[in-house]
Amino acid sequence: MGKRVYCFFAIVNAPPALISLMRELDLIRGRFNQTFKLEHAFGDSATHRAWHGPSLMRALEGVDAEQAKADPIGGRHTIWEIVNHCAYWVEEVDRALRGENIFDVEAIEDWPEAGGSPEEWRADLGKLAETFDNLDRRIYGLKPEDLERKLGATFGETYFDFTFRKMLHGISDHNVYHAGQISLLKTA
Q: How far is the C-alpha of 7 from the C-alpha of 14, rounded, in Å?
């Protein structure tokens, strides 16, 4: 999707708080994209590269099924498990934005099993990309006032209450964290 286009008349006549929220929504979407996509999508100059290091997809470049299922540190999650975990959470955020409840997350869902074959690896990478595209379209369709909408979820015994804004920043942070983890596993 392209950049959000605003009618000049609407921006001129919009209250300053709404203009600020519109800009914030665009920044959140840009941040989500930056933590997920390859940085060449943002241009070739150093100013378009993410400050945090590689995006999730950049970290996954060159990883094949064998490396994805390897356990180089022992007892830690594999790259493949991390990919499935990231796809799960991007999909959960998309479900939440659609108004579906996300309650009682089970460990098996949070860390889905990894496959074993190159075909399964490609399918899981495809699922990760598909879940990203779905959430990106959902974010693009949000209205600025949606950032203040609240969501509640229960994880184990703990109930969480947070805004869409916090959830969208959280999924971007999640992408960055796991991109770093994958980068470390690739060199282990």
A: 10
- Residue 44's pLDDT is 41
Q: Which residues contact 14 (CB under 8 A, 6 or more apart)?
A: 22
Residue-range definition of the domain harbouring residue 39: 8-187
In order of 11, 21, 34, 39, 49, the CA distances from 43 in angstroms are: 27, 25, 11, 7, 8
- Domain of 16, CATH number, reads 1.20.120.450
The pTM for the full model equals 0.79
Structural domain total, the chain: 1
Contact between 140 and 29 under an 8 Å Cβ cutoff? The reply is yes
What is the phi/psi pair of residue 54, to 5°? -70, 150
How high is the pLDDT of residue 40?
46
Find the helix packing angle between 164-187 and 16-36, rounded to 10°. 20
CA distances to 22, 144, 151, 155 from 147, rounded to whole Å, are: 10, 6, 11, 22
Condensed to tens digits (0 to 9), the pLDDT of residues 74-115 reads: 889 999 999 999 999 999 999 989 988 776 666 557 788 899
Instruction: Give 119: exposed, middle or buried? Use CB within 10 Å, 0-12, 13-18, 19+.
Output: exposed
Tokens of 97: 């934005």
DSSP 5: -
pLDDT tier at 21, thresholds 50, 70, 90: low
